[in-house]
Amino acid sequence: MRLAHQFVEPFDNLDSLAIIGMQTRGVDIARRVHGYIKSFFSVDLPLGVLDTTFYRDDFRTKMKMPSVQVTDIPFDLFEKDLILVDDVLYTGRTVRSAMDALMSFGRPASVRFCCMVDRGHRELPVTADYVGVYVPTHLNEEIRVETKEQDGREAILVVTKEEEPRT
Amino acid sequence: MTTRSEGGYVFPHKHLLGLKDYSAEDILHVLDQTDNFLEILNRPIPKIPTLRDKTIVNLFYENSTRTRLSFEMAQKRMGADVVNFSSGSSSVSKGESLKDTIRNIESMKIDMVVVRHPSPGAAHFISRCVDAAILNAGDGAHEHPTQALLDIFSIRQKIGRLKGLKIVIIGDITHSRVVRSNIIGLTRLGAKVRVCGPRTMMPVFVEELGVTVSYNLEECLEWCDMAMALRIQLERQEKGLFPSQREYHEQFGIKKRHLLEFPNFTIMHPGPVNRGVELESEVADSPRAIILNQVTNGLAVRMAVLYLLSGGKRV
């Protein structure tokens, strides 16, 4: 909810604003934020869904080919101020691929990035404009954001690999 | 949305030699992925960098426009380096064997080979000679898997389901590789397939493939949800499989009046259409024909297949 207010704050005119959620859990968070903005400001912002599989630089180094998911951006990006939403910001590579992907849809006026959790360990010069929570982590830990739509509950878990989750 | 991926499904194939090797789940996975590639084609910049580290050879020992263009365009849309080879302008005319040709090409560090060849089994043969991923783009009268995948995708896109659907395939059943791949794929997904054509073009024991046979076009059109007409291969006409094009049209061509008499079926054709033979011109252009959608879908299907087979390391 705080994020929703932060999104809207710098804009006098919401006409150019649009939200893009990144598959899979970024989409759920984006929907949530979109819903808040709708009920507080009674504006129905354009909402898109983006899958960045094709633009990743690491998909061939993993064991199996990732399945491609739906991309659906039902509006023209030209001159829009976009807010990209994802669950976890880690190395920054996903954001880079998302920016590449967005550019093939057109030329937005600006792109800002929002993440639920920033866990550090960046490998690229990327930072988020809006952050839900900073969680300093160890490299052998994994951040797991769960959403109602995907996991049936809402939680942010810090999981140390090969151990049980601790909240 | 992609339930199959969430459920731990892993696409298990390295090659696409024929649909015979693909389970129902594999076929459905390709179709699901195709949906997402179709969306890319509608983007303002319909290009993705996914295959930019791959080199692909299109090895065509037989003529083709649609399949070849479609493959090449799919490869370029995904950023791959593409080399085209056609037997006419190559050392094949100097007598180089298929095995030597492919092993030489492989030495140039390639990742994938798309092959069309007049001999059945050519793609299988190549897959045993080299390490690259092989895509069969038609081998003799054997299989043409990407055509069948795009047909099946088009059917699902139009009607929304495949199980229990009634599909009739009309034409030269014996010589068609499209038909064989389609029968395998469609029956595996639970569709009911009937084949229809002149007796001279009907292979014996065709029922073994799990289809029914009919020699009466109108009965089939009344029965089916989808009618797939095959191209009558005029170049094979001298063999005398039917007396004349006109007589074929009379008996097995879909005509304008059929559209009125049987209001429910949809028309497909793998192309190129001989207007006035398999389909009357008005039928080919009618809104009930999805022939041009098939071509668009063909591009998306081929992108999906290239993507799925591109995994792993360079050979």
Structure, explained:
The complex is a heterodimer of chains A (167) and B (315). Chain A is α/β, with parallel strands linked by helices and 167 residues long. Chain A is built from four helices and seven strands, in the order αβαββαβββαβ. In chain A, the strands form two sheets. In chain A, strands 2-1-3-4-5 form a five-stranded parallel beta sheet. Chain A has a two-stranded antiparallel ribbon with strand order 6-7. In chain A, α1 (2-8) packs across α2 (25-41). Chain A is globular. Helix content of chain B is 39%, strand content 14%. Chain B has helices spanning 3-6, 24-41, 66-77, 98-106, 122-129, 145-159, 177-188, 217-223, 245-252, 256-261, 281-284, 291-309, and strands at 55-60, 81-86, 112-117, 133-139, 166-170, 192-196, 212-214, 226-229, 266-268. Chain B is built from twelve helices and nine strands. Chain B is of the alpha/beta class and 315 residues long. In chain B, α5 links the parallel β3 and β4. In chain B, α3 packs across α12. Chain B has a five-stranded parallel beta sheet with strand order 7-6-5-8-9, sandwiched between helices. Chain B has a four-stranded parallel beta sheet with strand order 2-1-3-4, with helices on both faces. Chain A binds chain B through residues 51, 53-55, 59-60, 64-72, 100, 103-106, and chain B through 1-2, 4-5, 9-11, 29, 32-33, 35-37, 39-40, 43-50, 53, 78, 304, 307-308, 310-313.
Strand order of the largest sheet of chain A: 2-1-3-4-5
Largest sheet of chain B: 5 strands, parallel
- Helix content bin of chain B: 25-40%
> Could you tell me the number of beta strands of chain B?
9
Helical segment tally of chain B? 12
Oligomerization: heterodimer
Would you report the number of β strands of chain A?
7
Largest interface: A-B, 20 and 32 residues
Question: What Rg of chain A, in angstroms, do the CA atoms define?
Answer: 16 Å
